[in-house]
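retry 2 of 3: previous attempt timed out while embedding zinc ion. Reduced batch size to 1 and resubmitted. Inputs unchanged:
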Amino acid sequence: MTISIDHLDEFHAEPHGISLVCPHCQTLTHLTAQAAPSFATLSHLRPKNIGVVFRCDACAEPVFLKFAAKAYAPQRVELSGNFTEIERPQETFPLTYLPEEAATLFKEALGCYAASCFNAFAAMCRRTAQSLFRELGEAGKLGLFDTLQEIRTLAALDDATLGTVRSVLFGNDSDPWPHQPMLDAESAGVLLEVMRDMLYQTFVRKERLLQAMTFRRFVTPAPAFAPAPAFTPADIFARES
Ligand SMILES: [Zn+2]
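retry 2 succeeded.
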């Protein structure tokens, strides 16, 4: 992708423009540039990073992106294709199904992820896991470990990724330094999906199933009369003896 601001102050992103998941409407959408610094100012000041305001084509809310300046040419300023999203979509999870302490910790974890603080996110995921181990006991911890193995098979996680996730969630501060591996955007994304699935399997699925069953029993009409059994137990006993 070639991104630039030309000498007429026009913003270009070739060939397909800029698309991402909008932090406001959560839609994967195209963005239209609304405000970029002028070519003259950029050429004069030559900053290392350049901020551009876009409009989401789906919901019209503003989206701010930061680009590294790649080259200052006589007719245009070239920007790096790897931009930083200043506001990321807020990740959601039905936290009410989790034990109270774990819900508080995981909510902060999701906030860290949305702010692109991936190592803070991993640290809060470990605290969430530790809270759950305390809440569920040793059997619960083994159950969570089994769920991680299932996710590994289903999602075909490679050994290195599984090792990172396992070390974040099941490691502790007495492990050799560093106590916790460093995470980048990609491994944090995998960790987020593992946490989601593990917490869903352990807490949300069972509760929702129980609620659905209770609802079904409640809405099923009671029969007008109980049909008489063809034989009473006494009949069967009399016939067999
Ligand atoms: Zn939007």
